[in-house]
Amino acid sequence: MVRFCKFPDCKNNDHGRGYCAAHNWQLKNKSELTPINPIRTGCTEKGCNNPHIANGLCGKHYQQEKSPKNKIKRLELKKEVFSHYSKKLSNSDIPCCACCGENKFLIFLTIDHIKGRDDLPDKEKNLVGTALYAYLKRNNYPPKYQVLCINCNSAKSDSGICPHKRSTK
Q: Which range marks the domain in which residue 141 is found?
C-alpha cells in the first residue's frame, strides 16, 4: 500500500514520519512546513505533454532543437550579438576581442560580463550560450557585456585584469 505525505495537497510518497522527503527536510531544518513546488517532468514546449528527455524537452523537440537548421539559426544569433558588441570597439561588423582585437575565428570569442557575474541579477547569472545571446538581443544589448577572446577572458577571470591591460612598469 502506497502512503502519501500528510501535508495538505502534497502528492509525494511518504518518506518517513508520514511526510515526503522535502517536508521531512523542512521539519528537520526549518520547523515550519510550506508547500513544495512540483518538479516539472514534462516537455516545456507549449502544448506538449510528453516526458522530458534533456534540456526540458521531449525527444522529438530536443531533436528539432539540435537540427542543422537550428544550428545555423544559433550561429547567426551569435554573430549578430558579437557584431553588435564589437561594433563599439572596431566600428565594423566583424566580431573581435575588446582587449587584443582577435577576430580570425568566431569560435575563439565569448561574451564577457564586464564586472563579473556577481553584479548581475539572478535571472542573468546562469545564462550561457544561445540562451545568453537571445537574452542580450531581447533586452537591447545591455552595456554590461563585451566580447573577449577565450585567452583574455580566462586571464581576466584568473587575475582580475587581462595581461594586455596591465601596465608594463
A: 74-159
Rounded Cα distance, 49 and 31, in Å:
36
pTM for the structure as a whole: 0.59
Q: What is the C-alpha separation between 23 and 13, in angstroms, rounded?
A: 11
Share of the chain above pLDDT 90, in %: 20
In a domain, 62, yes or no: no
The model's pLDDT over 133-150, given as tens digits with 9 standing for 90+, comes to 988 999 999 988 999 999
What grid cell was written down for 134? 537571445
Q: Flag whether 56 is in a domain.
A: no
Decide: 109 and 148 in contact? Cβ < 8 Å: yes
- Residue-wise pLDDT for 82-123, tens only, equals 999 998 777 778 999 988 888 999 999 999 988 877 777 777
Q: How many domains does the chain have?
A: 1
Q: How far apart are CA 52 and CA 62, in angstroms?
A: 9
Instruction: Using alpha carbons, list the distances in angstroms from residue 50 to 57, 84, 164.
Output: 8, 38, 51
Q: Is residue 80 part of a domain?
A: yes
CA distances from 7 to 32, 119, 148 (A): 11, 38, 51
Q: Is residue 165 assigned to a domain?
A: no
